[in-house]
Amino acid sequence: MPRSLEILLATAATALGIAFFASVPYWPHEAISNPLPGFVSSAAQALAPSYRAPLRGPSVLANLRPAPDLNLVLPDDVAVVVARRGINGETGLIPTTASITTFRLRATGDLVSVAAPTGVDAVRRVNNDADPALRVRGAFAVATTDRGSTVIRWTENGVTYEISSRTLDTARLTEVANQLR
User: Fold this and answer.
1) From CA 154, how far away is CA 177, in angstroms rounded?
2) CA distance linking residue 164 with residue 170, whole number of Å
3) For the chain, does the N or the C end have fewer beta carbons within 10 angstroms?
4) Alpha-carbon distance 22 to 24, whole Å?
């Protein structure tokens, strides 16, 4: 393509773009009764009526509980993170969703996995149980053994957590679980 034709096409495209953006304010549109928002300046606020509803009372968000932490961790002096993967098998940097974190205990070298699994029922205390034997982080807990792994589940703040190990018994795993933060 000749150089002069390239320049002509570039100039025409530029002129067309400028004409388009220059014509936008003249397109038909609904009239705005208050074109200046109330926060622009105090003079504009005095001249233009404010159509915003006044805030009355405390904010709705102030009464909400903070979001629960889905990823509990062990202190650095107790354990080291060995692996972290998402509940659906993703690995690498996990965003804000829950993950399965595997720790190696510094004292014994045992592996412990901590997760907030999805799709499990909340752990609730049976009404006729006067003294629950197992408590983790102050909440009632249930211990099971599944395929050679000891698994402890508990529910706190509406989130069910679980900690599991192939080598630790229920008592030692409960001690480790109570160190989670």
Assistant:
1) 10
2) 9
3) N
4) 6
